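Handoff note, outgoing to incoming analyst
You'll be picking up this chain. Sequence as last confirmed:
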Amino acid sequence: MDHPQKNRTVIIISIITIAIGVIVILGWVFKMQVLQSIVPAFEPMRFNTALCYVLFGCALMLTQYPAWKYGIAFVILSLLGTLIGLITLSQNLFHFDAGIDQLFVMDHIKLSRSYPFPGRMAFNAAVSFSLLGLGFLALTIKSRIFRVISQCLFHIVTILSAIALIGYLYGVSLFDSLFYVSSMATHSAVLIFILSIAASLLNPSIGVTRLFTGKLVGNQMAKRLFTLMLLMVIIFGSFRVQTQHLQAFTLDIGISLLAVCFLLVSLLLIWNTANWLNKIDKQRSEAEAEVKLMNTGLEKRVEERSAEFKKSEEKYRSLIEHASDAIYVLDYNGNFIDVNASMCKMMGYSREELLQLNVEEIIDPEELKTDPVTHGPRDPIQSVIRERRLIRKDRSIFDAEINVKMFADDRILVIARDITGRKKMEAELREAELKFRTIAEKSMVGVYIVQNGKFVYVNPRFAGVFGYEPGEVINTFPVETIIHESYRAITTENVRARMAGEVESVHYEAMGKRKDGTTNWVEFYGSRAIIGEEPTIIGSMIDITERKRAEEQLRSSEQKYKLLFDSNPLPLWMISKDDLSVIAVNEAAANLYGYTQEELLQMKVSQLRPEEDFEEQLERHRRNASSATDLGVVRHLRKDGTIMSIQLIAHDIIFNGMSVRLSLTNDVTEKLKAEESLQKSEANLQTILNTTDTAYALFDMDLQVLAFNQKANEFVKEQAHHTPGKGDRLSDYFPPERFPQFVQFAREVLEGNNINYEIDYPQDDGTINWYYVRLFPITNDNKEIFGMMMALYDISERKNAEQDLKNAYERIQSHINNIKDMAWKQSHLVRSPLANLKALAVMLKDHPTDAKVLEHFQTELNRLDDIIHEMAEQASDHGV
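Most recent structure output, in case you need it:
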């Protein structure tokens, strides 16, 4: 791998992740709620989520130690975390319970719509851990393809967690939950975000990470801009949460403030980046000035050395022609035979003295020990040129260059030259060249030398800008090869003009062409010089691609801001703080006030206010508006004299060196009328809701209370012994034994169905209260469901009346049944004496004086009379 052995950022993030995971695990083991949540008021982190953090944190830590990197321990930790994520993900996708959610600890948190499965991590947390684990496992395969795949997986996890964090900051539930399954906790999203970033640092040269880990100017600018933009998103998100919590602004004011803040911070980012680039440009200019100064010095020294060489050459020619060099002749034994005046002068001896000496007497003894005198070649055509250290008469030692030739008669001709000055000059030249090469090779500025239309020298920076190695550029192709076709003509002309001596130096920009065919922008500085009697261009080059891109972006931003001002649908003004004159106005403002833009530019804003409001206008104008400030609603005049209500938002800025107020005048005349009408309607509605016998309550998608009327308040206090408030969860006070059934009804309603049912509530005094409940979804004009309405009506009186009727009906039915039984029974009893009486009557007809028959007759009559009396009494009893 090409990342460093130890990365401090990776180690710190690993330690933080492991520590938080262990703390949460201890919180679950010892049932300590404060440890489970990490941050007060946050949702508890699931045990399996914390376990995955520990596993992946340990795996990430192992990558920083060569002995453990991508070993068996790393694979096991990564595989365990991946399995937990994949199994949890499968449970959500295929709706089954694998038993892993509460395998280690039991989760006793109440079930809710946002938390339907105890112990189970959020859906997008499971997705993130699965992708993160697969990315870790891909790192163990030594292949660039798998490294790229791994980096892509890490980037996907970073994007998912970042989207979730943005969702929390800006209240977009779609962002912090995938497919509306379940939402990831805020601290979980933060940990996954930093963990995925730390994992991407394992491959710093791949993907987006390469943009922020490089050492080039573009990488530094990317880190600066992205960090500031990330802080901007977080700060504005936090500001939105606080303002929404405090209900400080309405939606339209909040959006306007957010837009203005984004504009101001964007301006600050541009200002910061521009200053940074200007600083780099200044440093580049200073470096260029130093290089140009060095070039000038080098050119001067080269000219001086060239003049010296030319002078030396003239002396040499004069020596040959006039024997001005030291010339002497030796015999075969090294004795002087002849010397010229220059030799005498050079050595400090007279001619006579030299003729008495041997050549070894004028040579440094130390040199003779290692390099004794040898005779020249026998071939008179050949000669030997070498250097010797000679000793003058005054015993001073100097360097001399000698040309030795052997004559046919064994005489030796020697031409000697004092090269002390040349040696000194060569040393200085070598030192100068060493300094030049050292500066050039290490310079961040491209340095080049051109002769005969080709580069004879380029430093690594110059070659690297165009994607080459120095050896690929030097003496290989013409100069115009690295220039884009559209700029080759001007480049060729600049080179020709300097080579011809028409100009001494040039400075221009051109579009370059890299080795891979891509283009860049470069800035050339070059001056003409003569090196080795050849016209030469020595210059420097700077890659200005990023500067060009920044300038283009700056121009684009200026055009966008101008377009934003001119084409903005809201009326915008720029007013002088000194005399209230109109400096700039957009078309929307002109249309609103009935003037043309030219007319408004000739006016003062005091002409747009009623005369009686002029003092108030001056007082508002004196107020300091260092940031976007809402100055309230004021009266303004149209051109036709009509008065309109204007909401005035102002911000004092400096424009072209003068103090200017940037204002937005929003016509709220109709809005105020509509708000007044809406307030009346709302008051009427509240009156109706608070005087009706029906309890109404409004809930959001998570069954949190949004609004309720007085009757609903009384119902909750009476039946649940709870004082309701906005933001309460229905599960907090709903009877536990009835809540699952209500959740089922609520799900059907949130799917678009209406639900009606009756429900009873036993009272402490033994009576029963009955309620008729209606549940129906709340939708907008697009049929989108964003809540649920519950209407509850007390039907106890009707239910009691129905029960009384039912009881009376049952009693009547019982009486009828009793009468039927009694009639059957007594009709059976009457039938017996009546039959007897009929028989006795027949007998009396045959024997009218039969006393015994008459007695029986009388007995049956009495019996019949008793039965009739009994029937009357029983009928009287059943009628009660």
